[in-house]
Specification:
The chain has 140 residues and is an alpha+beta fold. It has one domain: Thrombin, subunit H, CATH 2.40.10. Helices cover 18% and strands 36% of the residues. A hairpin with a 2-residue loop joins β1 and β2. The chain is globular. The N and C termini lie far apart (57 Å).
C-alpha cells in the first residue's frame, strides 16, 4: 500500500492577500483597560488587551459568538468614558490545556465622528507611551 505524502503543498499567495500584521489596516496597541459590556440583558466585565481605531480584543474565558452585538463601556486612564456599540467578529475559544489569550475580537459599529476621533487619539496616546517605554528599555 503506497504511503501518502502528507506534507503541505506550497501554494502561491495572491498579491491582494495580506498575511500576519500586514492584514491589519489600522495600528493596534497593547492596553489593559477594564470594559463593561452588555448583550441583551446580560452584563459582563472583562479586560481590553488591544485597541485599534476599528475595534478591540476582549480577553475572556467566555467569548460570545461571532455576530453578537454588544454595548461597550470603558474609560481610559485620565480620559473620558466611552460608550460605544460593537459586534463580535471573531473568537479565540479557551482550550483545555493551553488557553493562551482566549477572548473575542470586537469591531466598533455606528461610531459618531466624535467617538471615532476620541478612539484615534487614544490609540495614538498608547502608541506614543509604548514607544517611550521601548526607548527607556533600549529597544528603539
Amino acid at each position: 500500500m503506497p504511503i501518502k505524502d502528507r506534507r503541505k503543498r506550497v501554494m502561491p499567495v495572491g498579491h491582494e492577500r495580506r498575511t500576519g500584521r500586514e492584514r491589519r489596516e489600522h495600528q493596534r496597541v497593547l492596553v489593559s483597560m477594564e470594559v463593561d459590556y452588555r448583550c441583551d440583558k446580560t452584563f459582563l466585565f472583562a479586560y481590553i488587551t488591544d485597541l485599534s481605531a476599528m475595534g478591540i480584543f476582549i480577553q475572556t474565558s467566555e467569548p460570545l459568538p461571532p455576530g453578537t452585538l454588544l454595548n461597550l463601556r470603558f474609560q481610559p486612564p485620565g480620559g473620558a468614558q466611552l460608550d460605544v456599540e460593537g459586534r463580535v467578529i471573531w473568537v479565540n475559544p479557551p482550550r483545555k490545556h493551553d488557553s493562551i489569550n482566549p477572548g473575542m475580537g470586537v469591531q466598533f459599529v455606528d461610531l459618531t465622528p466624535a467617538q471615532r476621533e476620541q478612539i484615534k487619539v487614544l490609540v495614538r496616546t498608547f502608541a506614543y507611551l509604548s514607544d517611550d517605554e521601548d526607548q527607556v528599555r533600549g529597544n528603539s
